[in-house]
Specification:
60% of the residues lie in helices and 13% in strands. The protein has 5 helices and 3 strands, in the order βαββαααα. Strand 2 and strand 3 form a beta hairpin. Helix 2 crosses helix 4.
Length: 104
């Protein structure tokens, strides 16, 4: 069973360095979700993070993320697309750039 904790954007930055919408700590089975997100996005992000826990860390962005995105979309399609819109910010785009850069 996982532990789900809702935290502020500032707390997410303090704990995990980046403005993640959600973050999974595999070892302790903890999921952190940003509390400032709209409910539909939270639902999508929670499904996304639960997918990470179910599958475990696969070792790279392209192995980890697509199936988790699919889980988030299936759980809440509108929230999934709203999350994409909210991700079109400099800080979130930098996050994706950094994650992809570490894969190559």
């Amino acid at each position: 069973m996982e532990v789900i904790t809702y935290i502020s954007k500032d707390e997410m930055l303090k704990r995990f360095k980046w403005p993640y919408f959600g973050f999974t700590v595999y070892r302790t089975r903890e999921i952190f979700i940003r509390s400032d997100l709209p409910e539909g996005i939270k639902t999508s992000v929670l499904a996304h993070e639960r997918n990470h826990l179910e599958r475990g860390h696969q070792g790279s962005f392209w192995k980890d993320e697509p199936l988790a995105w699919w889980a988030g979309f299936k759980a809440q399609p509108v929230g999934f697309f709203l999350g994409i819109l909210l991700s079109l910010s400099p800080s979130r785009l930098t996050l994706y750039y950094q994650r992809l850069r570490h894969d190559f």
